Amino acid sequence: MNLTISPIYKGPHSTIDHTAAPLYQALCLYETSKRTSMHVPGHKDGRVFDREAWGRFSSILSIDATESVGIDDLHHPTDFIADAQALAAEAFGADHTFFLVGGSTIGNIGVALTLCEPGDKILVQRNMHKSVFHGLLLAGAQPIFIAPAIESTTKAAKVSDIRYIEKALKDNPDVKGVWITNPNYYGMSQDITRLAETCHKAGVPLIVDEAHGAHFGQVEEVPPSALSKGADVVVQSTHKMLTAMTMASMLHVKGNRVSRERLAQVLGMIQSTSPSYPLLASLDLARRYLVTEGRTHLKETVKRLETRRKGLSNELKALSIWEGSKEVHYRDPLKWIISCNHEMISGYQLLDLFYEQGCTAEISDPRNIVFLFSLNEEEDDIEKVVEAIKAIDGKLQQWSMMDSREKGETVLFAEEGTLYKQEISLRDAFHMPRKRVALEEAAGSLCGEMVLPYPPGIPLLTPGEEITSTHIQTIRELKEMGAYFQSPSDDTLKTLYVLK
After folding, report:
1. φ, ψ (nearest 5 deg) of residue 486
2. pLDDT at residue number 31
3. pTM confidence score
4. For residue 460, how many other CB atoms are within 10 A of its CB?
């Protein structure tokens, strides 16, 4: 192993050297120095650890360092972390990149606290991850929610049509920004060029939760990135679609519409003062792999996947693979959306069927499941998924679909473009006294908890939101179909907290 740390720049007129991994290489030097640790962490570079598990963890423990001399400090980077973040910024087209060790959750909370003071308004797409709502709650913001568009075949939520957002901005000129999710969990992405221009004309930043699009813009075979289309701040889960370790994510900033100084201050407040250096190094390595090998692998993988998807689509009889639509500008080829042609079979049932077949999907919903592929999928790995799909397709063809009734659509959001302002802020609702009532008696009350089908972690109800009869019906339908709800106050969902 070469333990010298490669410089980012080879000379004053040269390009950035992406074969370098400065933070990872610094940890390797730390490991080989074999200095006696008289500082945290308490496992002392692996000297003191559970005997049975030591063999599995030892190689990580030896680089599980802290902010000691020669490694750099995440909260005041001046050396190896600063270099690693600079390399990432170049690779992803940002002016500055922050490394995150709490997932995109920390990035979203950090953005909310950076943009919003108590009482500030911000225009937010309603189908956002719960971390956005939590960030707005902590900031004391007054979000104006805009209902998303719904793709007609999959019924998946996506960015609202630009005309609705333009009108919302015109009617609410005092908002601090516009915040959207793009792509959605299903890999559907809209062209946000005009939206970015609209936001900038209105003098506000465009914030994009691009958790599932860290690979976007890296090759022509995948959709373009949000940064390339004019977004000001982008949060990416580098561990989801790229190769970083779980919880390792990045926050990218472009331009000066959002204060990097304040953002750095906020991240220093909400991220651990003892961050995991193996996680941080995995971000450094994920960037290096992407630039030096991953882009080539991604192009090859997309070609393999598209060939198999098109062939499989013609063979299936009971199942179908979504091929895109005119309603969606870009489709992520690394995600296959599978549904049953008979609507009485839910995505939750398909999830169980594929699990029994040895194939675990990323997400299920009332209609679909989603398979998520990596940057580098060989033919053999793809074939295993294809064979599982064929096997389930054959099994479903043998089923007697006796119930021919049309299945009603489960309503998750209001009509596209609908604006919703809570009478009570998220923060105030969180601190108000509450009481438990039967679900069927909750209509008309203000919700006292977050009702969260998971994944994808988009709240059906938030604290302070008015509960309607549609909400109650949707909760019942999702529960009957086998949906998983994260952290409800009542696992049966027969009761719910409402505000007193």
Report:
1. -90, 120
2. 86
3. 0.93
4. 20
